[in-house]
Each structure stands twice: as structure tokens, then as C-alpha cells.
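ARCHIVE CARD
SHELF: 3
SLOT: left
DATA:
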Amino acid sequence: MRSDAKDLPRGPASGQASGDQRPLAGTSGKGLGATGGLFGITGEERRWLLRAWLLGACLIGCICIVNILTIQHDSPELGSLRPIIWEGTSALVTIVILTIPAAMAFWTKRARPHWWAALPAHLTALVAYSALHVAGFLALREWAHAVLLNEAYNYGPLATEFPYEFRKDFLAYLLASGIFWLALQRGGQTPGATGPARPATFDIQDGARLIRVAVDKIIAVRSAGNYVEFILADERRPLMRSSLAAMQDTLAPQGFVRSHKSWLVNKALVTGLRPEGSGDYTVELGALEAPLSRRFPEALAALRDPA
């Protein structure tokens, strides 16, 4: 079976008439999810990321206080201000660069890369995280020592001190990435008894315009390069800059099924399944036909289930 099935005609119904000079949907680079969030991030995910960041900041603050008290107890000759400067600058920079593991956790959840692609990306992020941490607290400590103590700050040989910091940063990065990933998993869950299980509308960023459509009017979503094409019941075909995997994460709770590497279909609008041989099927959605690949057996099972 061909990878692209027969479908509804395009043209003015796509939402952009011939001669229209407006940019195609998604060219602004701002993907909108169900709540219109940047890059497709939902409001619930933003709230859980903020909660994870606040949790991380509280943990860092507690560790900072413990370290200050420990240094003051073990080395009273250093005075009280030096441990505060040393631990405080490290904690402050760490709180700021928590955005790196947060961004990587978001990328991992949305892109779902293979391990051989995710590993070098995370290693690069880890090196950047540690380098920024060390560079940041060195700059702050040198300034604080000069202004508050009227002395120069001596960090020691970078060749020996950086590996020591890197080991600690490695553990901190792993812990922070895990916390943010778990927060995103929680933020991506559908509401339970506290809210509706199925949002009534979905927002599509169509160039400079925002198209708000009822979820039950979206027949299917098709991959189109760096964009996804929404096939609507009124024959419009708006495009939005996003990956199909990101749309699958967002729309799966609303009853959309991945039937093909390039297609999502609205299970509620399926009117028939037609075998094409070799395990492939054609999904009938009224006048629209979409492919169902034998490589997606879970989709066939889901579409056959009337529930």
C-alpha cells in the first residue's frame, strides 16, 4: 500500500488561497499545543516544570546551608564570610543553570530520541552545565573576595579542581534531569476528576493566525516535513511547525492513534478498515482515507476496539 492514501482535495480549503502572501502555518517557529504554549508545551507542563525548579532550588539551598555550617565548624580560621561566599556563589549559579537539564528533559520527552542520539546530546549538555557552573562561581567569588574581603581569590589549579567539580556536577545533572523528566511526565497526564478528560478545542498556529478548532473536527494529522498538516472536517488544511511525535504526545489522550509513520487519525471518526494485503490496511474516515501500516499493530488493535 502506498504511504500516502487518497484524501480530500486541497486548494482554497487549505486555509490559504492562491496569491496569498501570508507565511504558511508554523513559519513563525512558535508551535502551539492545546493551551497555546511555546514549542507545544502545555500550561500543565509549565506548572510542573516550575514546581520541579522550585524543588531543586530548595534542595540546593539546604545543601548550601549544611556545607557552610560544616566548613565553619571544621575550619573556624577561615571566618564566617568565606564559606558563605564559596557555597553561596556555587548555589546561585546552580539554580540558574538548572534550565539546562530542564530543557534536555523536555527535549527527551518530546523527541523521544534513540539512546545513540540522546547520549551525545546529554554529554554535551553536561559539559556545558559543569563549565558554566565553574566559570560562574569563579567570577562571583573573585568579585566577592575583592569587594567584601579586599583580597584575591585563589581557586587552585584548574587541571585538578575542575575534575573534582565535574564529578559533583555529573551527579547533580543526573538528579536534576530525572526530577524534570518526572515532572514533565506528570504534567503531560490527562486531568482526572479535577477536570475534563477531553478538551473541547485545540489551537493551531497558522502563520500569524491562531485557528481554534473543536477536537472532534480534526479528522487526521499528517506529517509534512518540518510541519504537520491538520485535516479538518470543513476541508481546511492548516499547517503547524511541529513534529508528528509531539502531536502524538498531545493528541493521544484525545483519542488520536498513530496508524503510520506519517499519520495520526481520530479514532472517533473512523468509519471503516479495509485490508490491503501483507498486513496493511486503509483507514476510512468518511471521504478521507489514511494508511495503516503493519508496523503499527497496536494501532490496528486500538481502531478495532469500539471502546
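SLOT: right
DATA:
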Amino acid sequence: MSGNGKTTQGNSDTAEPDTAPSDTTHRAAGAPPQYFVQQERIYPKRVWGKYRKLKWVAMIVTLGIYYLTPFLRWDRGPHAPDQAVLIDLQNTRAYWFWIEIWPQEVYIIAGILILAAVALFFATSLFGRVWCGYFCPQTVWTDLFIWVERIVQGDRNARKKLHEAPWSFEKLWKLALTHSIWLIIAWCTAGSFVLYFNDAPTLVHSFFTFDVSPTVLAFIAGLTFSTYLMAGFAREQVCTYMCPYARFQSAMFDRDTLIIGYDEQRGEPRGKHKKGESWDGRGDCIDCTACVQVCPMGIDIRNGLQMECIACGLCVDACNDVMDKVGLPQGLIRYDTINRIEAAPGTPEKEAPFQFIRPRTIYYAVILAIVGGTMLGALILRKPLELHVLRDRTPLFVQLSSGDIRNGYVVKILNKTHQHRTYALSVEGLENPSIEVKAAGGAESGSLYVPADSVGTYHVFVSAPVVPDAPRSISLILTDSHTGASDKTSSTFISRREQ
């Protein structure tokens, strides 16, 4: 994959290929050579077509999900939050509709991340960088910011002219309005992100009553600035230099992956064309650079597939529009595979259908099935309670006046239900054991109370006659007095010191 297709945009609608400066370019005699040039600002031109419509739909849907999801409610009972999607940092819980994740279940988070990564690789192997072109947050918010910029300042030529013009009242108010709207969008974006970590209606009400904590305000300020910077200024540089996906995307590509491609056999030799001129001895590309002018990454797709290409399809819309105007078939630039694009006209390879089932896609599908099945099984078999036992180390044991030996244990009970529960604790592996529970207000082994969606901690003493073998393995069993659900964990019982 080539990364040499970056283009610069001057004062006209045509964009010339960017060339590396030589020792004799852009410098006076005797001046040191220029090895770096300033990043050229890109002004994408407005285009309308099938893929631009798809991008609008994707942007509206994704932004709608992002901004509205914190306000969705999900009834979990009176003892749990009713926000459908919530990351409760204070109580160390994460809620996603009917799924609740505890800190001990970090493997679920790991599984979700693995599933998302493999799904991205699978989609990339089939359709190229569709995630980057349509659903990536950087792409979505950049599209939104460019749309605001176009509404206030005009289309490509008007924005370039305004940017290069000297300061005036018109330039001042247009830039001020543009950046003000950008900041409002960035603030809404940051505020919505914070809502995922707090009860949304409560936090919104706190804003109107000026009762927001400094921590929340600091997070909103930082996220507002980062959104404003990334979508308003960094834009394509984030995709090219900051995002690692652009660097290793080619590892998921093969010659049957759908990409944005230029049909060089059909388009070359390119050249300007006037109405009424013959097309004999020349290609269909009229070198109008419309594909370059609409590209949000500022590349020339005619130079081949490049690292910067995000497969948004806007160049396809622009080229198809030009082909319609000159009376030629669409598809000079199109979504296609390398095998089909490079095949000679009229050959079976040129018309071969897109291959969904390939060794690469089978590998990813199998991994997706395994990880997805494992995650589904983990959620279905997830226990409503967990018992964790930590044995006292000081002292190892105590011999009572009756001659019995007593060991101490810290018992933690995880009640993962949304109702208050009472549990019974029993011991296996000892003859005639007795259990004593130390807790505020007193408690018995048959009535260990744990509130809904919380952890109960008890100090438990287990006593039994001296056993011949020490230490002895024992099992502590916790049983839900209401449902009968139980959990079991192993520990040791020590009755004498090792010789």
C-alpha cells in the first residue's frame, strides 16, 4: 500500500500531487535544504450521491445513539440504578441493559474488547475500511464540523478564499460563528460522555441549578477541548498519524477485499476533454480532479490504494457525477476488489462475483464464533452469588478451654441480585464443626444478610475437635435461603503446628 498519494491544494479547484522538495526547490541560493513542509489545509468539496447519503444516515444514527442512550431507562428493581447504560465508578459496577458487570468479572470486559477487535478485522477483510469511513467517532464528528463550516462559510472555494483573505469584519464574524458552534457541539459531546458515568437526568438538572462537582466540570472541559481540537483542526491527521489502524490495516486485506479503486485500464491515458471531441486513443478520466477535491483525506485515489484512504466513497460519488455529465458509464472509481480492477476487460475475472467465503474470512468467523459463544456461555452460567474466603494468618489457630481448635476466616459474599438476600453458611470436611459469626449487631451462620447488588463481609470462626491430620482441606458452602442457589469454596483448617 502506498502512502505517497497526499495532495496539496492551492488557490484553484485543481489539486496537484504533492512532491518532496529537493535541494533546489523552495529555497534561495545558499539556504539550507527544506526537509519538512507545513501540512496543507484540506477543504473537502460538497458532493451528493449514494455514498454521501449513506454517510449522512450513519452520522445521524450514530450521533442519535450517542446522545440519547444515557436517557434510556431499564427497570432493575428498587435497589439498583434504572439507567440502561451506566458505568457506576462509585459502586464499581457497569450496567448494560440486562447485563451487570462486577470488578471480579473483568474477563467479560476482556471478552467484549476481543470480540470488537475481531469483528473489526472481519469487516475489514470483507469491506475494507468501512468502519473508518462511516462509523469511526473521528470521522463522524469531523463530518459534522465540516458541515457546520460549509453552512457558515460556504463550499470549498469560498472557504479557501476566506481562509487566505486578510482579516476583515466578514472573516471575523464567520470564523467566530463557526468556532462558537464547534464549541457548542464539543461541549454537548463531552457532557453526553459524562452522562454515561452518572445518572443522566440528575446530572442535567444539576447543570441548570449550578450544582455540578468540580471533577465533572474538569472532565467536561478536557473532553470539550479534545473534541474541538480533533474534529476542528487535527481531522485527517488523526487518521494518518495518531490512529494505529491505518498502519496495520493491510494485514487484513487480500486481493478479494472490497476497496475504493481506480480502473486504470479504463481511465488511462487521462486528459482534458471538450464536448464533441473523440474518445479514440484516450481513457475515460478527464483529469478534472473532482475525486481529489471531495476527499476528506486530501489524497488522489488514482495513484492507487493508499494508507490514508478511509473508504468513505465520496470520490466514487464525485466521479460518477462527472461520468454522467460527459456521457460515459459510471464506475471509473468504484468499490471493487484488486482482482476485478486489474483484470483485463471482457475476462471472466472482471465479471467474477465478490467472494465472501475465503480462508481469511473463515478464520475470523471461527474466532468470532468461539469468543462470542464463550461470552454467551459465561453470561448464561453467571452465578447470582459468589463466596470468597480469606483465612486468618495471625493467629493460625486458637485452642479453646474445651479442647476444640478454632480457626478464623474473612468471608465475603457477593450478592449479584437486585434484591436483599439472607444466606446460610455451612462447613464440610470436619466432624461436629461449629460456626460463630462476628458482625456489627450480631449474626448467625444461618442468617447472613447482604443488601441487593452489594458485598457483605463477615468474620467467621470455625471450631472443631483436634483432627489427626493438619492442615485439613475443608469446604465452606453458602446457600441462598430464598432461592436455594449456592456457591462453594475451599480453604484449610489448622489444628496443630507443623513439626
